[in-house]
Structures are given as structure tokens and as C-alpha cells.
Amino acid sequence: MPAQDKANSEFTHRLVRFDVAIAKGFVLTEVAAVVDALRIANRVTARPIFDWTYRSHSGGQITSRSRAIMDTVPFEERPEADYLFVIGNSNQDEPDLSLPGIIDRYTHRGAQVYLLAEAASRYIRDKGQEARGLSTHWENSAVFRERMEMFDADNALASRDGRVVTCAGWGRRWTWCCRSWGSTCRQQS
Fold first, then answer.
1. Which CA distances in Å does 61 have to 20, 23, 64, 83?
2. What pTM does this model have?
3. What pLDDT, in 10s, does the model give residues 70-105?
């Protein structure tokens, strides 16, 4: 096989890696929306194209609000995933949703990061004034307005801040943030 054909063949068969970050109280439907789409895609292709790993700060078992238990492994110092999805939960103040250093490790290595609902809210909170105009769930926006008068959430379903996308979640169908940028996403400068 010529070298170029071999390189193309290896590239087309490389698994696309996803890390799915969860914290105590994670939303099981958000995990299912991400992982089931990948699982089904693998099922209908001739060979698996997606791989995913559940991650958390310290690894081990993490329990959802619906009492489902997920086994996780700790975040890597040098992540190799192509994508990081950070799942929301019902508490934007959950300390394990604070991932600024971890998000930086992923984006530095070229990964695309998606922050869903409360995970987006925690990112916004951690970034402070730099985060004006990013998307989060409307309930979380109300809490921000009470806590920080200057907060003005974007009404878009998703907003992009470099390699990080914040997604509104719940009734706003956070899955749209993964489909297209069009009018549903606002690019941050």
C-alpha cells in the first residue's frame, strides 16, 4: 500500500475520543444525549468511530440526582480527547463543576469543549467579567442577575468563546449547540 493511502486509511479509522465530565448530582439525560448518540453511531458503522471516557476530579463512583451511579476516572494531565463535554447538574455552585485549569488543558491541546447548563454557569462564574454574553440556562441567568448585577446572558442557544461552547440546556435544547453555529450561536471575540 502506498504511504499516502496508508496514512489516509489510518486517519479515517482513528477513533474520535470524547471525555464526558460529570460531578455529583449530574443530569442523567444529558449524559444519555451525548453518549447514546455516539453509541448508536458506532452501532451503525462498520467499525467503531467514537470512544468515550467518563471523568471526574478524583475518579471513582459519582451519583446523579436520579441516583444512577457512574464509574469515572480522573482527568489526565495531558488530555488526548478530541472533545470534552461537561455535564450540568441542578447546582451551579457544585465545586466539582469548577474546571478552569482542566478546560485550559483540553483547549491548549486543541480539543473542543462543550459546557452544558450548570457547567456553563460555573464557567461563566469562574471567568467573571470576561464571560459577558455567554449562554446559560434561563434559571441560572436569574441567579446570576441576583448575585452579580452586571451579568447579561446571551439569549442564544449556545455561545462560543474560542474553543469553549456554553450551551443553555433544558427547554432550549442544548443539543442544538452541537449541530450548527448559524444564528443559534454567538462568537465571542
1. 14, 10, 10, 22
2. 0.77
3. 999 999 999 999 999 999 887 777 889 889 899 999
